[in-house]
């Protein structure tokens, strides 16, 4: 099944909904003129459609495998990776000083979505490098930067994140990997890490691992964690891969999806590493990497969802069954139409949120203003959780549109659902995202949230003159968001946590209502029809989410463990 | 992971919620005393826990395969099937005249749920035989009954359903398989059928196919379809498998889940068949089979969901992560608690609806009353769609509770999600169920629905004296159901279809609210805590469903095909 890059949607969102012009008006991103952005999107879109998209299905059928210690990758992935790195897409948002394109994150986010849609398993490789590049840009010494950033930015080498250990998943603070000073400014790293995405690959001359570990004098918990750079091959003086370091891939996981992405168990045995940032401050450095990775994972969900949608639509436009009107295919049946419209409406909502998030990141980078930083921080868990929830729901519905054919692997619909399944889990489960939203992101007493709500109100208000009915419904939803947020910031943590996930879902529903409303105002008739569907039929869900969110923790714990186990 | 048969829940539902005593008070089911039922559940539960449950995971890892025309089944499935048939569980609800136990469908439904939970792939084999037995009991000639029913009821032979052809899925009327009279009362059947569950198996001495086909003079569409019985081996005079018939398994599908269940493409080439029922009335006979199969598939969803829940709970009770209170495991974290409680609350709602449905079937069988028949007919699509939606949602959340471990196949959580995925599709997609609910099941102008709603109101009213707050919320929800139903029966078909799925979902949410309310009144504190969670936090979803349902078709088709395809 071909993939069509949703360029029109990105252009519309950039121009009319999220305001890329604000970003292009800053000195930092002055080069991101509409023409340039258009050219970049077109070129990335072409690569995704022509080079990456055909690799997706073979990757599922021929998983990466470990053969005598070598990670053999899926057919064509070497060529696909070459296209990504040679196109400059690994370093598209990175510092031009080290070879990056220096593009706004907003544009990079659109490209990342398209690459995820085309081939999620392969896209994970450059996505992790991007995160590593950003962590090094912010925290590494000049020497490390000079040595590693050019290689990572060009995609010649790739980067990984090593956080998880068997006993330390969501609770990173429980990790045990050790780092001991060698006395020469380097460290000996020993321990086992699991779930290391693209831990190695036969087409990569070197892989650079960022590893969280504990120094001998480290405090327990997250305050005693430091970050180390540990390359597979130690670079020679002229920056070529030299001596083999003390690390290896022990095994690869057999997973429900993303079979083309090697998920490694890594063993570090007195591997040589370099400290990144300050001792015991590894979590802060890691958070730099994770925040953008979270945006990245959110758009992975959207990308896979978009592809699942296109796949389902193509099937519905082709399949005849029963007495359908119009085209004579099942797309004319009301229930099939409902499914497809629901999918498209949710994808638009999620995509608009992800780009709103990226604009905030760019504005924060370009202006350094605290309010933009807070906006970006607030939106990141919403993008991650809503984007991946939507990706899963859409992929699930895509299978449903196919009927029995959807359950047969041959049609490819099932793969999207299996691939999407990881996205609400990794880079912090969606539960963790929601807890981040209601705790860390509300430490300001809700200031960032209320500032956003004020803006949402203005958008709804402005739409009244032309779209009174829709604007009123969205206005009411915004009021519900405001009231629930006011309630939330008065609660203790346990009560917030009990309703964190439904609160995040309701928040996203309302945000999507506002961007759809704006699309109805700014767009053609199709945009308005989609917005009306969303606002009339999906937006009302926010009420149930907020009712759920306000349930609090008391009622939750009334059910004892014995009650839960009763059968 | 072991499985624990939820016997307490069944007993509570039988005694306090769905009223099995009504069924046991009829002549037909007078033997189904509480003691007997208890003994049966205990015995079935033991088989499911000890014999069937251990086969589930090996079945996933070692799919059924076709080897030189022979369907080789997964390890241990032969022994598992032997336990099911020798225990009498194939024919548990069948006519004692042919060796059945004659149990109420209510009890059989509980047993079917447990068998599905233990090993869905294997349970499909007896489930299809049960459907075939019922179709033959109602429509076959005495000769066919005498020859086949004892073998099918004992489980010595198994039965299949052959409806689907590549061009005829949801639109059964498009099928092309031909039947020509041989002149001796038998027919020659030729054609290809797909998605034939348990089309053959190496442990079965004979397989009996019920095949929908067209006679030479048949009208087009569903009015020209007849039903034929076509055995793999033609029975000899003493009822043993004799000459091989003209049919074969061409291939098996590679599926997302239920790997242990062989899904066959069947080729019929002048195979000898016998007419079941009347010429051109095959659909009516097939509906007998399908209606109960739909109840059966609904409880498959619930069964797999129950197992996924138990699996996730066990993990949450064992896994330590972060600063959890109480037991020190992640079950103490509010968001994990929320997920598990949500799962359990939905499973109870779905199970109670399925058993309410089964009671209606039993009462219809025992009394012949039209109102019970209408009740059973009304509830069947709700049980099927809601039960399977819940099964999928719960299995999805079960993966989420496991975090990264859920995505790794080794832990088994992913299998439940992959297995459950077929249940909203087969036996009529959930979209078809919803259309059946709003069209065929409302042809009475909503009479059956309003009769049920009247009863729901009585239950809510009765609960007021002890549970005023919960009762009021449920009462309000019932009013919303009534108003939406009143609106619905005034709509034309296109408008009903546009909102059919959300209407069904809202209906189920309200039904679940009523059974939870009853459980709060009748049960211990744990039941009340669970009911409060459901009524406060999940029941409010009905409003969004009904708003969606009332959207109508006009707005849906405002979005053109070009709009849908725009990217």
TrEMBL record, chains A, B:
Its cofactor is FAD. InterPro entries: Acyl-CoA_dh-like_C_dom (IPR025878), Acyl-CoA_Oxase/DH_mid-dom (IPR006091), Acyl-CoA_Oxase/DH_mid-dom_sf (IPR046373), AcylCo_DH-like_C (IPR036250), AcylCo_DH/oxidase_C (IPR009075), AcylCoA_DH/ox_N (IPR013786), AcylCoA_DH/ox_N_sf (IPR037069), AcylCoA_DH/oxidase_NM_dom_sf (IPR009100). It catalyses: 3-(methylsulfanyl)propanoyl-CoA + oxidized [electron-transfer flavoprotein] + H(+) = 3-(methylsulfanyl)acryloyl-CoA + reduced [electron-transfer flavoprotein]. Keywords: FAD, Flavoprotein, Oxidoreductase. Residues 281-440 form the Acyl-CoA dehydrogenase/oxidase C-terminal domain. It is an enzyme of class 1 (oxidoreductase). Residues 161-270 form the Acyl-CoA oxidase/dehydrogenase middle domain. GO terms for molecular function: flavin adenine dinucleotide binding; oxidoreductase activity, acting on the CH-CH group of donors. Residues 79-156 form the Acyl-CoA dehydrogenase/oxidase N-terminal domain. Its EC number is 1.3.99.41. Gene3D superfamilies: Acyl-CoA dehydrogenase/oxidase, N-terminal domain, Butyryl-CoA Dehydrogenase, subunit A, domain 2, Butyryl-CoA Dehydrogenase, subunit A, domain 3. Residues 452-556 form the Acetyl-CoA dehydrogenase-like C-terminal domain. Belongs to the acyl-CoA dehydrogenase family. Involved in the assimilation of dimethylsulphoniopropionate (DMSP), an important compound in the fixation of carbon in marine phytoplankton, by mediating the conversion of 3-(methylthio)propanoyl-CoA (MMPA-CoA) to 3-(methylthio)acryloyl-CoA (MTA-CoA). This is 3-methylmercaptopropionyl-CoA dehydrogenase.
């Amino acid at each position: 099944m071909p993939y069509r890059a949703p360029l029109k949607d990105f252009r519309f969102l950039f121009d009319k909904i999220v305001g890329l012009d604000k970003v292009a008006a800053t000195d930092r991103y002055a080069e991101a003129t509409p023409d340039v952005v258009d050219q970049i999107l077109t070129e990335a879109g072409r690569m995704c459609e022509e080079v990456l998209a055909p690799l997706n299905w073979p990757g599922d059928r021929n998983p990466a495998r470990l053969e005598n210690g070598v990670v053999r990758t899926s057919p064509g992935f070497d060529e696909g990776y070459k296209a990504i790195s040679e196109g400059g897409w690994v370093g598209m948002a990175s510092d031009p000083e080290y070879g990056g394109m220096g593009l706004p994150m907003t544009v990079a986010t659109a490209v990342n979505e398209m690459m995820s849609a085309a081939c999620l398993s392969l896209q994970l490789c450059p996505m992790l490098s991007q995160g590593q590049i950003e962590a090094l840009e912010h925290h590494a010494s000049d020497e490390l930067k000079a040595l590693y950033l050019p290689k990572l930015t060009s995609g010649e080498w790739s980067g990984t994140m090593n956080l998880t250990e068997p006993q330390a998943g969501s609770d990173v603070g429980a990790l045990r990997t050790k780092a001991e000073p060698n006395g020469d400014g380097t460290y000996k790293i020993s321990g086992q890490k699991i779930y290391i995405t693209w831990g190695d690959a036969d087409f990569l001359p070197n892989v650079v691992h960022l590893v969280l570990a504990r120094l001998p004098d480290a405090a327990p918990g997250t305050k005693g964690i430091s970050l180390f750079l540990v390359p597979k091959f130690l670079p020679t003086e002229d920056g070529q891969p030299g001596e083999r370091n003390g690390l290896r891939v022990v095994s690869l996981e057999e997973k429900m999806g993303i079979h083309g992405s090697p998920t490694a168990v890594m063993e570090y045995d007195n591997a040589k590493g370099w400290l990144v940032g300050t001792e015991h401050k590894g979590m802060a450095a890691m958070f730099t990497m994770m925040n953008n990775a979270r945006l990245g994972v959110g758009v992975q969900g959207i990308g896979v969802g978009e592809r699942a949608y296109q796949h389902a639509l193509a099937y519905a436009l082709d399949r005849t069954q029963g007495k359908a009107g119009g085209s004579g295919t099942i797309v004319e049946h009301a229930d099939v139409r409902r499914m497809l419209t629901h999918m498209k409406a949710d994808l638009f909502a999620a995509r608009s949120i992800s780009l709103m998030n990226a604009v905030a990141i760019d504005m924060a980078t370009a202006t350094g203003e605290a309010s933009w930083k807070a906006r970006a921080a607030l939106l990141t868990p919403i993008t991650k959780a809503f984007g991946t929830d939507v990706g899963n729901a859409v992929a699930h519905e895509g299978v449903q549109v196919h009927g029995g054919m959807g359950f047969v692997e041959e049609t490819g619909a099932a793969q999207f659902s299996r691939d999407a399944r990881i996205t609400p889990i990794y880079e912090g489960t969606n539960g963790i995202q929601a807890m981040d939203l209601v705790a860390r992101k509300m430490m300001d007493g809700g200031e960032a949230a209320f500032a956003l709500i004020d803006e949402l109100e203005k958008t709804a208000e402005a739409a009244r003159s032309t779209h009174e009915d829709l604007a009123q419904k969205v206005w009411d939803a915004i009021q519900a968001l405001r009231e629930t947020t006011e309630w939330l910031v008065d609660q203790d943590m346990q009560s917030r946590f009990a309703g964190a996930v439904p609160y995040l879902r309701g928040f996203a529903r309302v945000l999507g209502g506002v961007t759809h409303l704006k699309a109805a105002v700014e767009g053609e008739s199709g945009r308005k029809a989609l917005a009306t569907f969303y606002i009339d039929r999906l937006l009302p869900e926010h009420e149930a989410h907020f009712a759920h969110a306000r349930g609090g923790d008391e009622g939750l714990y009334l059910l004892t463990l014995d009650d839960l186990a009763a059968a």
